[in-house]
Amino acid sequence: MTTEFKDSIETALHNPNLTGALGRFSEAYRISRAKAYEGIDFEAVRDRIAEVKGKASSRFEELAEQFKANAERRGAKVFRTSDPAEVKRYILDLAKAQNVQSVVKSKSMASEEIHLNKAFEQAGIQVDETDLGEWIIQLAHQTPSHMVMPAIHMTKEEVAEVFSQEVEAGQAPDIPKLVKFARGKLRPKFLAADMGITGANIAVAETGSLVIITNEGNARLVTTLPRIHVAIVGIEKLVAQVADIDPILTALPRSATGQLLTSYVSMLSGQVPNTDGSPKDLHIILMDNHRSDMVKDPKFKEALQCIRCATCLNVCPVFRLVGGHVFGKTYTGGIGTILTAWFDELKKSEDIQGLCIQCGSCVPVCPGKIDIPGLILELRRRLVVEQGQSLAMKAIFGVVNNRRLFHSMLRMAAVTQKPFKQGRFIRHLPLFLSDMTDFRSLPAIAPEPFRDKIKAIAQPKQAEKVVFYAGCLIDFAYPETGTALVKILNKAGIEVVFPEDQTCCGAPARYSGAYEVAAQNARDNIKALLETDATYVVSACPTCTVALKHDFLDTFKTLGITDAMGEAQRLSDRTIDFSSLVKKLVDEGRLTFKEGQHLGKITYHDSCHLKRTLKATDEPRELLQKAGHELAEMYECDTCCGMAGSYSLKLPEISAPILERKLKNIKDTGADKVVMDCPGCVMQIRGGLDKDGSPIQVEHTAERLEDRFE
Amino acid sequence: MTATFEAFQTRAAAVSAEVHRFATRHEGLAFIECFLREVGVSEAPGSGALWVDGSFLEGIGSAHVTSQVPGVSFEVTREAAAVAKVGISQLDWAIAGTGTLVQDATAVEKRLVSTLPPIHLAVLGTERILADFNSVLQRLQPEQINYIAFITGPSRTADIERVLTIGVHGPERLIVVVVDDFEKVTA
Lengths: 710, 187
Hints:
The complex is a heterodimer.
Chain A: H1 3-13, H2 16-36, H3 42-58, H4 60-73, E1 77-81, H5 84-97, E2 102-105, H6 109-113, H7 116-122, E3 126-129, H8 132-139, H9 156-166, H10 175-192, E4 195-198, E5 202-204, E6 209-214, H11 218-224, E7 228-234, E8 238-239, H12 245-257, E9 264-269, E10 281-287, H13 291-296, H14 311-314, H15 319-322, H16 333-344, H17 350-353, H18 372-387, H19 391-400, H20 403-416, E11 421-422, E12 425-426, H21 434-438, E13 442-443, H22 450-456, E14 465-469, H23 471-476, H24 479-491, E15 495-497, H25 507-511, H26 515-530, E16 536-539, H27 542-559, H28 565-574, E17 575-577, H29 578-587, E18 600-605, H30 608-613, H31 618-627, E19 629-631, H32 647-650, H33 652-668, E20 673-676, H34 679-692, E21 697-700, H35 701-705
Parallel strand pairs in A: 1-10, 2-3, 2-4, 4-7, 5-8, 7-10, 14-15, 14-16, 16-17, 18-19, 18-20, 20-21
Antiparallel strand pairs in A: 5-6, 6-9, 11-12, 12-13
Helix pairs in contact in A: 2-12, 3-12, 16-18, 22-24, 26-27, 26-28, 27-28, 29-31, 33-34
Chain B: H1 2-14, E1 18-22, H2 25-38, E2 49-51, H3 62-68, E3 72-73, H4 78-83, E4 86-90, E5 93-95, E6 100-104, H5 108-115, E7 119-125, E8 129-130, H6 133-139, E9 147-151, E10 156-157, E11 165-166, E12 173-179, H7 183-186
Parallel strand pairs in B: 1-12, 2-3, 2-4, 4-7, 5-8, 7-12
Antiparallel strand pairs in B: 5-6, 6-9, 10-11
């Protein structure tokens, strides 16, 4: 990451206006979105959107020609181009030929994408944004920080200052007054303009129709008052037929602003009369700008299913800290990162893609069914392929890829950490490492790793065997979690086997884009874990479980490795997470809880991979309650704790405030224990509470359940 | 019919539209005239009301209205709309599920009176309220109509600090007058 970029993160994090506004919004958004979708089958709606838009993108060329023919039949002039420079040239030529003095615009991200306003200004033509948020940022000489609410990063005081400086002195920071002021100042501009520019939310090929969705009513004025109307439409807005509008119109207002429908939806199909009775001079520009290149990319094609609702920004724990001026360019947030890489260039996404914490919060709420974190990971991988891994990362992966070296270094660390160790924690590290222990303590490397400990456990010999994949954290920092797991499975009559040759699951390499390293980790583990004939391969780390169950297959597939796919699939079929396995054993009557236990109040933290990839949310809760605990749910129980593997090492400044929020939510429940299924979350949350001096105990579900069975 | 109307009214009221229902057009008109006087419609500059004539006044006549409320005009122009206080137009359909009004707005006069004045008064037949978006699209087809307008409440913005503010570029108030005996003239 560039120093400049790191500085911009720092600046954003220290802007209380920004973090306050975004934080409050993200909280209110969840509630209003849920309310707007009451009575609606969101999964069915998004299935239809994905289908409609997925099919449309497969036939852009055909739909674009059909749209052109139909719109032209109804009096529009349609101009198709792949080049943003040609869009600007077309509009400026038209403006000159028609003697256009002034232009009013309603919101168009496509015009932001090509920096159209700058072109007008250079040509000496007055151009005014009329969407209130867009007008504010135009006056402030900024870019939109959010696709739906361009000026969300500004306070009313800042808006009043911009209005006072740029339009008329003496504006007070009173929102209704500021809105009225904007109405008063923009009305004459609407009436005087010769040209109106809009975007479109949907373009229907079979009728040549544009669907424009607004709340302010500015698009209605822009399409009614000026004698010329130019619509700039990205070809990803095309759908085949009128019936395809419905799912998009159902989702967009609900997901974008929590409305059932926006105040205004206009369907324009061809020319309409001007106020003097003459026919409107209507120009529609279908702009490609690398969209058809995306279609050809099997991974990125699905990003064209985006309806620009900005949900992925609104639910993102990182976006709510840094905002769109750090997280994105013209298009911001998760989807913005992907669009930047394509509409601009891959290199431009280099810094911003690193902000994605891979928590998956945006996946279940995306109306376009786009795997945004998955695509960002793919950008990361391609950046590594294109530019290579940094020397430091190369050195780290060189070690991780050599199990013996890696494990002996960890053992050595258990000795060399002594000067920094206080009990089970490392509370301070010197020099450049201090960032890591500023906001949380780190776990000390255990004196005896789990791989040694298990040898001392006297397990009864059993016919049924389960292979345990410990993962680095349980093996070397939290061996007690592994011990608890063995004890519980033994009670169910299962013998736990620990293959010595298991090594790092490859997640750190994969999440850094180093797929070749991850593939080698995958091969080593598959070999080690399939050697024993076992019913299950169980892991008590959700990230490792996801690696074994999903990532090995995907890494091979991405790299075109075919020889190991069958084995990878066998491992995947066998893999299960700890809580799901124990729940199964309880349901089968093989494990019985001790009766009549009253163990007090706890709260539960959902780990990202367990909840959103493995979809195990009820299992641990049910187990903990059956054991005798009262469950007090915390606010945002499924929001990331900020650990995310090496993310907290690369971006401690972001990891820290995410953790701080999590700790507050835990404390607010009044529970004296917080339980979770991921040793990474244990490391982050236990370290944070230790730094705080909080008495709240942090435990892995396995530890909490260790002595709860008959 | 009543259930559909009530669903429409609930949804429309939730987005700050003011919905009134009357049995006859005469009762509806009496309300409109009273309303126009109440908000100060007169012949004074900036106090006019602009009405796009439609079947609502069939058999009643526009002259009746102008005689009752001076300041109402049926000559809709850009200049007049820019300074009018109230715009009045007849809407074609409504959607109960979202509280939305729908109109074939190809005629520019209809767009002028519903965009520029601070108050938009919409008249509508009760039987014109349909369940959902698709039912309306079967009757107002984009294949045939060049400008279909969907209006759900007055103009709004939340662009400054997400604080909902009514009436940014379009009308600040949306009054909907729903009349039961409209069928006879619109059928």
